[in-house]
Design a protein that fits this description.
By secondary structure, the protein is an alpha+beta fold. It has 2 domains: 14-153, 3-Layer(aba) Sandwich (Trna Endonuclease, Chain: A, domain 1); 165-272, 3-Layer(aba) Sandwich (Trna Endonuclease, Chain: A, domain 1). The protein is built from 6 helices and 13 strands. The chain has helices spanning 19-44, 48-53, 99-108, 137-143, 165-182, 229-236, and strands spanning 7-8, 56-60, 71-75, 78-87, 93-94, 112-118, 135-136, 189-191, 197-198, 201-204, 210-219, 241-250, 265-272. The strands form 3 sheets. Strands 2, 3, 4, 5, 6 and 7 form a 6-stranded mixed beta sheet that branches. The longest helix is centred in the N-terminal third of the chain and has 26 residues, at 19-44.
Length: 274
């Protein structure tokens, strides 16, 4: 058995989060920056049907806490993580995230880290001769070089790639979040897919009870993961309903390997603690 050590993204005793600051970030990103960014990319690919024809897929479209990238999409077999920067009054670019950590987390999960910059008027800063306006995060951080990332001209995107660990975890979490929204009609949901951080999902059920869920993933032939007992005890002290979920991921054709761009079967085994 594998005991997965983790981190707690909120402390039940002290909250560990500045709720006001997070609320302001949620409002700023979900109501202003993200819609502008998404409209920008949709203007390049006008419809969902065209996205499918171009073999593109959005993987992350909402603000979550904690996070190492703002938005994320797949183009063929490459995945691009978008980190949003904002120009401030002193003309410097402000990043709420530590770029070195974001770059490291992206590389650990085979994600290409990109930067999208907004000016003081919340307009996207264009790049010369490039419609995407995405900057190579590694080139900027390590070499102070403005280098464009052009997803539809990525030469490596046609070669085979398996899903990274973040994609596997995000697939499982989003499947359950969708179930909460569509089948259980739950709207008060907080979720995140930062690797190694728990809980993955929190929600208020129809009875008004607080629920939390830790999520692990595995593929056929892998050892079944376990949960850090310290984190479980901490979360249990909230008095809410606890759920431990192990998602078995498989591909109908390959079973063990999960190729990018192909369907994933998700079977979730959930242990209710309360």
């Amino acid at each position: 058995m594998i005991e997965q050590k983790g981190q707690l993204f909120f402390d039940p005793e002290t909250t560990g989060l500045n709720k006001k600051a997070i609320g302001e970030m949620v409002k700023e990103r979900n109501e202003m920056l993200y819609p502008i960014a998404l409209n920008h990319f949709y203007s390049l690919i006008p419809s969902i049907e065209n996205m499918m024809e171009c073999d593109m897929q959005w993987l992350k479209m909402e603000f979550t806490v904690p996070y190492f990238m703002d938005l994320c999409f797949r183009a063929k077999n490459s995945v691009f993580g978008i980190i949003i920067g904002q120009e401030k009054d002193d003309s410097n670019i402000y990043f709420p995230l530590d770029l070195d950590i974001s770059i490291k987390k992206c590389e650990e999960n085979d994600i290409i880290p990109c930067i999208l910059v907004f000016d003081k008027n919340l307009d996207i800063i264009p790049l010369k001769d490039d419609k995407w306006c995405l900057i190579d995060a590694k080139a900027l951080f390590f070499n102070r070089e403005i280098k464009a990332v052009i997803p539809d001209k990525d030469d490596t995107s046609t070669s085979f790639r398996a899903m990274g660990k973040w994609e596997e975890l995000n697939n499982a979490i989003m499947a359950y979040v969708q179930d909460l929204r569509d089948k259980q009609e739950i709207s008060d949901i907080l979720y995140q897919s930062y690797p190694g951080v728990d809980p993955a999902i929190c929600w208020i059920d129809k009875e008004g009870m607080f629920n939390w869920m830790m999520v692990r993933t595995m593929k056929e032939g892998e050892e079944e993961p376990t949960f850090d007992p310290f984190i479980v005890d901490k979360l249990s002290s909230t008095g809410g309903k606890g759920h431990l979920s192990i998602a078995l991921l498989s591909n109908p054709n390959t079973k063990v390997v999960l190729p990018r761009g192909e369907s994933v079967d998700i079977k979730m085994e959930i242990e209710d603690l309360n």
